[in-house]
Design a protein that fits this description.
heterodimer, A: alpha/beta, TIM Barrel, 2 domains, three-stranded antiparallel β-sheet, 8 helices, 24% strand, B: mainly alpha, 3 helices, 42% helix
């Protein structure tokens, strides 16, 4: 008997001998049992606006209690949070915050939702699931900000409690996922579809990295996939890359590239396309796809104007897809 | 033997393929060939992913005992049957 275990949480399917940890760095074979080293041990705890996730069509203007543990099952060379996502749990200072304390803190800070974010909530699955279950009981919404590299079984279990998700679709190229991120594409596409089918409000983010995934053809392919598989009302965020982690040799994404990607995606038929991490003329505005009226204007993460009335355009009354404050999802 | 077979397959694939790789979708005319190679080799190698590493168990145990990392039973795993 070797006491080896195989983790089936994510598509890596790590087989671990005693003393070995998975590719996520937080799941460890301890004497023939798989344990999580990060349950109840977040390394980042913040109160963020929901727009920072980014979610632009989910309870705009609300505060979100945001937590993350160490660890990630990918190794994206551009990772913006690599200090914690690529760290070993024993090498970063963590808080002692069991799920009950997460809920207490969220309520104490007046947050209407909890976000599992910054790193990869799939790798702290048990903590995410238990927090989300308690939050649901307390009337608090749950937000998953994820790269989507998780198997269907655990995702289904998690999705039961998740109200909204922003999934990072890094590229439409499997080679890009393998070479730049240490993963594969198809499981991510499956996750997006499964979340959508499970009733979770889904928005998608694509980080455009100069020379790596900024080809207009690839932008088109991504927008078409979103349109064909999740529909024209799924918000798509093109996010600006800044030199980080192992890609400090590349420049920030030019604003023209981001603006061009937005226009191409809208031409393809996506109704709500945004530009993140950058200031562009209309990249942060939600406009009515029917009449073109500005519905939500944002300055940074702050909302300066909101003309959505009961989930409809304040000008022409067209329904606007999203989960609006005090309302159920509208699609 | 496998190496010879794979080389033959690769050469055959290159010779008969049209060679127009559709970068925009991540699909390739060579995809089927690579899938076949992976099937033949039965490889579970993930050289493109982060490596599986040994933990410093003395340190981990010490941290667990001091409550600085958790020792929470994980879900979604199977015990490997050597047989």
């Amino acid at each position: 008997m070797s006491n080896s275990v195989q983790c089936v949480l994510c598509p890596h399917l790590c087989t671990l001998a005693p003393g070995e940890r998975g590719r996520c760095s937080v799941r460890l074979n301890l004497g023939g049992e798989l344990i999580s080293l990060v349950y109840g041990r977040p390394v980042a705890v913040n109160n963020d606006p929901v727009e920072k996730k980014p979610l632009f069509h989910f309870m705009p203007g609300t505060d979100v209690f945001s937590i993350a543990t160490a660890g990630c099952n990918l190794k994206c060379e551009f990772c913006q949070n690599w200090e914690i996502s690529q760290a070993l749990p024993e090498d970063v200072t963590s808080y002692d915050m069991p799920p009950e304390a997460v809920i207490e803190n969220a309520l104490a800070y007046g947050c209407e939702a909890i976000a599992y974010t910054y790193t990869e909530p799939a790798v702290y699955f048990e903590y995410t699931r238990d927090c989300a279950r308690l939050a649901r009981e307390a009337g608090i919404k749950n937000i998953l900000v994820t790269a989507g590299y998780i198997n269907r079984g655990p995702l289904s279990e998690l999705a039961e409690y998740i109200d909204a998700a922003n999934v990072d679709l890094k590229s439409m190229s499997d080679a890009y996922y393998r070479n730049i991120c240490g993963g594969t594409l198809q499981p991510v596409l499956d996750t997006i579809i499964h979340l959508k089918e499970s009733g979770t409000w889904v928005e998608i983010t694509n980080l455009i990295v100069p020379t790596l995934n900024d080809d207009p053809d690839e932008v088109d392919a991504l927008a078409r996939w979103v349109l064909d598989n999740t529909g024209e009302d799924t918000p798509l965020h093109f996010s600006r890359f800044f030199p980080m982690y192992r890609l400090t040799n590349l420049p920030p994404t030019p604003l023209d590239t981001l603006q061009g990607a937005r226009e191409r995606a809208m031409d393809i038929g996506i109704n709500y396309v945004y530009v993140g991490n950058a200031v562009t003329p209309e990249g942060m505005q939600t406009k009515c796809p029917e009449c073109g009226e500005t519905l939500i204007a944002r300055h940074g993460y702050m909302i300066t104007e909101n003309n959505i009335l009961n989930g409809n355009c304040g000008n022409c009354s067209a329904p606007i897809a999203g989960v609006w404050n005090g309302m159920e999802e509208q699609q | 033997m496998k190496t010879v077979l794979l080389t033959v397959l690769l050469l055959a694939g290159l010779a008969f393929s049209e060679g127009d790789e559709a970068l925009s979708t991540g699909e390739s005319t060579y995809t089927g060939l690579f899938d076949l190679i992976m099937e033949l080799t039965g490889s579970t190698d993930r050289s493109w992913a982060k490596p599986i590493e040994n933990a410093d168990m003395d340190r981990i145990i010490e941290l667990i005992e001091n409550g600085l990392v958790s020792c929470h039973k994980a879900e979604w795993y199977a015990v490997v049957d050597d047989e």
